[in-house]
């Protein structure tokens, strides 16, 4: 079966150890996490967004194994084509001279990035968007020299009124 | 309610769950609870090694259908539980384990007897939790018993920091708990049930495969109703042994690596498989890809994640075995009368006659298959049998016919040597009025033999039948068959002397050299009120057949002829 990227969104009890339970289950069952992001959400829960690559039966098994964990309140897959998918990156770029400085600022503008820190030899830029967009921006910055990089992993919501409901 | 300490609250909460017996061993970090237990009516059974407290809780749970409870101290007490908890997890046995823990302020400081038992047991429990204040105890205990005993049953662990046991508070005991991420009651989809019934009626060569789920949900009557309506032969997994009386005309015995020849052959001929309450372990199926590949499969399981995990299902029914079979039976009877499967049943009978008509080997040595058959005829039908792991387990599985659910208790998933004896003690505590016999190998029995002390002092008389081949027999069999008889680290020698060992613990020891002595010894042991070890020397060269080599398909059964 064809391998593709899947986005899994889960509402979990917001308490210590739950992330460990989830990531440990992935390890034990031999599933590979591409990216994971977690943050607090409504009603004492946290929302996890996990991306994985695999075939359909892998993702089906994974979702069932997740649903089995008592601390996972609800889990479902999101269609990449029908979801708002975002990632945030902070990129520290080396600035050897003033031309480079104005080029980098220009590129950042085109990508709707923001300069969030400046020093004589560096600029730090914040970009949000799909992972593809962020990859493209990072590639552009390589010619200047990427000094340091931090990415959040993606987070996502389904488009339209559809939500992940708690029973 | 008055102010109570955490320890008092815990014991009160246990009483509210109907707990009447706990297996375990104390230590510093759980002393406040043991101090309260001193005054309570709950029976405490002191084990000699914590691993056995979990196995006893398993034996208790499997024999009775109730939740088994064990309790140990922090650090080494807790880590000694790990094998037992894993065993319960693999076989979905409902137990609740309590561990002591260092005081809250000491957690993470690597002080004396601190082990991160929550981290350690996360992948081997259905749920685990560390108590953070005495106030949480009533809810968490209620929740633990609820989780352990519902849905796909399994082990739950509660870790109790010492100062939460002494902290005082006014407790509130909930009547019920609901856990928002947990919905154990699945009703089967009516349309799917109907589709399954239609498919079953169309099948010309239907076969039913029953697993441990049938036993844990007490679904044997429903299973029999469906089987008899369809006139379908029933094989079981090892965990399902006893789901159908094995002297019933539709019973094929156990399927798989050490399955009966008729079961392993008929599954290759069947056109339709109804699998209930099992996870399709490779020990049952052989090579996954070649298992029932020409068969339509209906799979009933309470755990949605089991469906399609190892073997794809044509019709999945996510529900417990009892409910699933009940609805299925109803749908079947609405659609048609009892089926006529004369041709298929003729074939079943033909194979059975062929395989069961083999003449018994004339040999003056004690032969395990014959010993198992003799044992069956000596024991009342409701006798509970436990097994260790290895050849002893497979001989019991193949040749000791079980007539009732919950009377055959074995470690199927983890395959834990040393399980059978403590499990037998737990089962005897749960069902004191029937004989309990552990069918053992010498290697396995030595692993937990120290519980003879528990069995004797607590007056829990069980019988241990040691099929003594002076070998780690099953490993030796593999080395004989697949490693050119290079016996690497399997020879145990004639050590210990099991009769003297039993006597050293104050138990009864017997040794038998003939079938006549065997019969006498078993009769005497079952009648006596003391724990008895019967040493049965057998040849170290015995193999268990039939056998499917690991990783091969059921087609490749070797029979040893
Ligand atoms: C705790 C544990 N260690 C190792 C094994 C691997 N193992 C499986 S069967 C077996 C031999 C069992 O020997 P014995 O108890 O004497 O039984 P027999 O096969 O001779 O009947 C071994 C070592 C196991 N199942 N469990």
Can you describe this structure?
The complex is a heterodimer of chains A (167) and B (561). Chain A is an alpha+beta fold and 167 residues long. In chain A, 29% of the residues lie in helices and 41% in strands. Chain A is built from four helices and nine strands. Chain A has helices spanning 18-28, 56-68, 98-110, 131-142; strands at 4-13, 35-40, 45-54, 72-78, 83-94, 114-119, 122-129, 146-151, 155-158. In chain A, strands 5, 6, 7, 8 and 9 form a five-stranded antiparallel sheet that branches. Chain A has a four-stranded antiparallel sheet with strand order 2-3-1-4, with helices on one face. The longest helix of chain A has 13 residues, at 56-68. In chain A, 26% of the residues are buried. The model of chain A has no long low-confidence stretch (mean pLDDT 94). In chain B, the strands form four sheets. Chain B has a six-stranded parallel sheet with strand order 3-2-4-5-7-6, with helices on both faces. Helices cover 39% and strands 16% of the residues of chain B. In chain B, helix 3 (50-64) packs across helix 18. The relative contact order of chain B is 0.11. The model of chain B has no long low-confidence stretch (mean pLDDT 96). Chain B is an alpha/beta fold and 561 residues long. In chain B, strand 2, helix 2 and strand 3 (43-46) form a beta-alpha-beta unit. Residues 388-392, 415-417, 441-444, 467, 469, 471-475 of chain B line the site of thiamine diphosphate.
Q: Which helices and strands occur, and which strands form pairs?
A:
The complex is a heterodimer of chains A (167) and B (561).
Chain A: E1 4-13, H1 18-28, E2 35-40, E3 45-54, H2 56-68, E4 72-78, E5 83-94, H3 98-110, E6 114-119, E7 122-129, H4 131-142, E8 146-151, E9 155-158
Antiparallel strand pairs in A: 1-3, 1-4, 2-3, 5-7, 5-8, 5-9, 6-7
Chain B: E1 4-5, H1 6-16, E2 21-25, H2 31-37, E3 43-46, H3 50-64, E4 68-72, H4 76-80, H5 82-90, E5 95-101, H6 117-121, E6 127-130, H7 137-149, E7 156-161, H8 162-166, E8 168-169, H9 190-202, E9 206-210, H10 212-216, H11 220-230, E10 234-236, E11 251-254, H12 261-269, E12 272-276, H13 282-285, E13 296-301, E14 315-318, H14 321-335, H15 342-356, H16 368-378, E15 384-387, H17 391-399, E16 408-409, H18 420-430, E17 436-441, H19 442-448, H20 452-457, E18 463-468, H21 473-482, H22 498-504, E19 508-511, H23 515-527, E20 532-537
Parallel strand pairs in B: 2-3, 2-4, 4-5, 5-7, 6-7, 9-10, 9-12, 10-11, 12-13, 13-14, 15-16, 15-17, 17-18, 18-20, 19-20
Antiparallel strand pairs in B: 1-8
Helix pairs in contact in B: 1-2, 1-7, 3-5, 3-18, 9-14, 11-14, 12-15, 16-17, 16-23
The complex binds thiamine diphosphate (TPP).
């Amino acid at each position: 079966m064809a391998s593709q990227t899947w986005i899994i969104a889960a509402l979990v009890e917001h308490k210590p150890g739950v992330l460990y339970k989830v990531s440990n289950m992935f390890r034990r069952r031999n599933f590979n996490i591409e990216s994971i992001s977690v943050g607090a959400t409504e009603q004492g829960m946290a929302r996890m967004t996990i991306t994985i690559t695999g075939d359909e039966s892998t993702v089906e098994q994974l979702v069932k194994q997740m649903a089995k964990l008592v601390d996972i309140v609800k889990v479902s897959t999101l269609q990449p084509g029908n979801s708002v998918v975002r990632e945030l990156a902070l990129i520290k770029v080396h600035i050897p001279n003033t031309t480079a400085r104005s080029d980098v600022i220009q590129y950042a503008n085109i990508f709707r990035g923001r300069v969030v820190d400046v020093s004589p030899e560096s600029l730090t830029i914040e970009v949000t968007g799909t992972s593809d967009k962020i990859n493209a921006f990072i590639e552009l910055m390589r010619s200047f020299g990427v000094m340091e990089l931090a990415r959040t992993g993606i987070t996502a919501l389904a488009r339209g009124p559809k939500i992940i409901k708690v029973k | 309610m008055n102010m109570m300490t955490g320890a008092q609250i815990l014991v009160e909460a246990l009483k509210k769950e109907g707990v009447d017996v706990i297996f375990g061993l104390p230590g510093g970090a759980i002393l406040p609870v043991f101090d309260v237990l001193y005054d309570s009516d709950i029976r405490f059974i002191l084990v000699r090694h914590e691993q056995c407290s979990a196995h006893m809780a398993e034996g208790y749970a499997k024999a009775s259908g109730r939740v088994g409870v064990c309790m140990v101290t922090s650090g080494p007490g807790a880590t000694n539980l790990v094998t037992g908890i894993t065993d319960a997890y693999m076989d979905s046995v409902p137990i609740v384990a309590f561990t002591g823990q260092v005081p809250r302020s000491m957690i993470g400081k690597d002080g004396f007897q601190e082990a991160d038992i929550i981290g350690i047991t996360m992948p081997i429990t259905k749920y685990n939790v560390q108590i953070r204040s005495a106030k949480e105890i009533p809810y968490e205990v209620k929740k633990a018993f609820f989780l352990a005993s519902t849905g796909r049953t399994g082990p739950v662990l509660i870790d109790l920091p010492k100062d939460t046991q002494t902290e005082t508070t006014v407790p509130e005991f909930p009547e019920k708990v609901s856990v928002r991420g947990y919905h154990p009651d699945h009703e089967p989809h009516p349309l799917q049930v109907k589709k399954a019934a239609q498919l079953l009626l169309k099948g010309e060569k239907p076969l039913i495969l029953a697993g441990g789920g049938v036993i844990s949900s007490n679904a044997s009557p429903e299973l029999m109703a469906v089987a008899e309506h369809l006139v379908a032969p029933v094989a079981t997994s090892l965990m399902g042994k006893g789901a159908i009386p094995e002297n019933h005309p539709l019973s094929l015995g156990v399927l798989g690596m050490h399955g009966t020849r008729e079961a392993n052959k008929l599954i290759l001929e069947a056109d339709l498989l109804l699998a209930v309450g099992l996870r399709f372990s490779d020990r049952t199926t052989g090579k996954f890809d070649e298992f029932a590949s020409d068969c339509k499969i209906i799979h009933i399981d309470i755990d949605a994640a089991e469906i399609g995990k190892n073997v794809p299902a044509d019709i999945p029914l996510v529900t417990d075995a009892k409910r699933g079979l009940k609805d299925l039976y109803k749908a079947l009877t609405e659609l048609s009368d009892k089926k006529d499967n004369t041709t298929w049943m003729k074939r079943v009978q033909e194979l059975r006659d062929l395989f069961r008509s083999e003449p018994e080997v004339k040999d003056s040595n004690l032969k395990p298959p014959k010993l198992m058959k003799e044992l069956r005829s000596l024991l009342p039908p409701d006798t509970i049998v436990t097994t260790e792991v290895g050849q002893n387990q497979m001989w019991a599985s193949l040749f000791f016919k079980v007539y009732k659910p919950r009377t055959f208790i074995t470690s199927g998933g983890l395959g834990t040597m040393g399980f059978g004896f403590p499990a037998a003690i737990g089962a005897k505590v749960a069902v004191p009025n029937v004989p309990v016999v552990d069918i053992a190998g010498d290697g396995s029995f030595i692993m937990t033999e120290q519980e003879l002390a528990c069995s004797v002092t607590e007056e829990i008389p069980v019988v241990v039948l040691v099929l003594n081949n002076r070998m780690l027999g099953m490993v030796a069999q593999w080395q004989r068959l697949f490693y050119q008889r290079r016996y690497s680290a399997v020879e145990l020698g004639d050590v210990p002397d099991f009769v003297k060992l039993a006597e050293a613990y104050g138990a009864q020891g017997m040794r038998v050299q003939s079938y006549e002595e065997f019969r006498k010894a078993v009769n005497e042991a079952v009648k006596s009120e003391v724990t008895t070890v019967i040493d049965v020397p057998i040849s170290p060269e015995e193999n268990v057949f039939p056998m499917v080599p690991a990783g091969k398909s059921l087609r490749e059964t070797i029979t040893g002829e």
